[in-house]
């Protein structure tokens, strides 16, 4: 019920103060020399963050992730509204084993305001419990009376107040999703079934399919746009991105079929 999670703190910084390969939000990405910048409809995607797995491995208590390599996140903008919205939004979540990286200039056709201020990422030990609308909570709640009031609520408050008091954001790696709306494993499942964003009546009709498939997905990473140490909010508002994958792919360290969800208050 309680899972080890990699917490994330951020600190405003500048690329010139960071060594190549440091985990960070924004700035210019550190990429392999032969890397081809991701594009959507022939428009450059926006570089959002990079995560150095060798920096976080001591906090990976279940030894789930590779010991080295990088995650890079690129997101496209809605062409009409010039914002992040998560609806049919193209993205690239890239795992690279290469450690021979170079700080890469932005494409010449990337608009001037389509980059983000640099924020250093620091990792720490954290723990999470399932979202109160997650299927795990539903199953336990059937077995134990008043589970929410005697276990869930006080445990959630303890984790937030005692373990997470130095960081006020929704960033994390692994663990259970801290969703703004309903548990994101349902979003991952509905995307797999082609039901993401469909009419509510169709969603309800297929709910049992979504519920069963959701049990095969895990959260990989949460990325919070409402981070005071960066300016992601200019396109992402108060939203959080959630990236997940199947349990089988996670066990095999296969990051080629990542699902994405975007939730806002």
TrEMBL record:
Name the domain of life this protein comes from: Bacteria
**UniProt cross-references to Pfam families, sorted A to Z:** DUF1963 (PF09234)
Q: Which PANTHER family match?
A: SLL5081 PROTEIN (PTHR36436)
What is the name listed in the Swiss-Prot or TrEMBL entry for this protein? DUF1963 domain-containing protein
- Provide the species name: Dokdonia sinensis
């Amino acid at each position: 019920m309680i899972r080890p999670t990699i917490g994330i703190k951020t600190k405003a910084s500048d690329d010139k103060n960071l060594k190549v390969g440091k985990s960070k939000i924004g700035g210019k990405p550190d990429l392999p020399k032969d890397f081809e910048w991701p594009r959507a409809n022939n428009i450059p995607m926006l570089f959002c963050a990079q995560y150095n797995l060798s920096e976080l491995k001591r906090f990976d208590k279940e030894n789930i992730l590779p010991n080295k390599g990088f995650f890079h996140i690129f997101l496209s903008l809605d062409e009409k509204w010039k914002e992040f919205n998560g609806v049919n939004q193209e993205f690239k979540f890239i795992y690279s084993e290469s450690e021979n990286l170079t700080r890469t200039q932005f494409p010449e056709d990337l608009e001037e305001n389509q980059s983000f201020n640099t924020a250093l990422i620091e990792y720490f030990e954290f723990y999470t419990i399932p979202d109160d609308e997650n299927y795990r909570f539903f199953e336990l709640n059937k077995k134990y009376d008043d589970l929410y009031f005697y276990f869930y609520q006080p445990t959630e408050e303890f984790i937030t107040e005692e373990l997470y008091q130095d960081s006020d954001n929704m960033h994390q790696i692994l663990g259970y999703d801290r969703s703004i709306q309903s548990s994101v494993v349902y979003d991952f499942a509905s995307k797999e079934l082609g039901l993401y964003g469909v009419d509510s009546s169709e969603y309800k009709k297929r709910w049992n399919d979504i519920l069963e498939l959701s049990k095969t997905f895990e959260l990989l990473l949460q990325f919070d746009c409402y981070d005071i140490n960066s300016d992601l909010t200019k396109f992402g508002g108060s939203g959080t991105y959630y990236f997940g994958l199947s349990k089988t792919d996670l066990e095999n360290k296969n990051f080629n079929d990542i699902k994405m969800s975007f939730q806002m208050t």
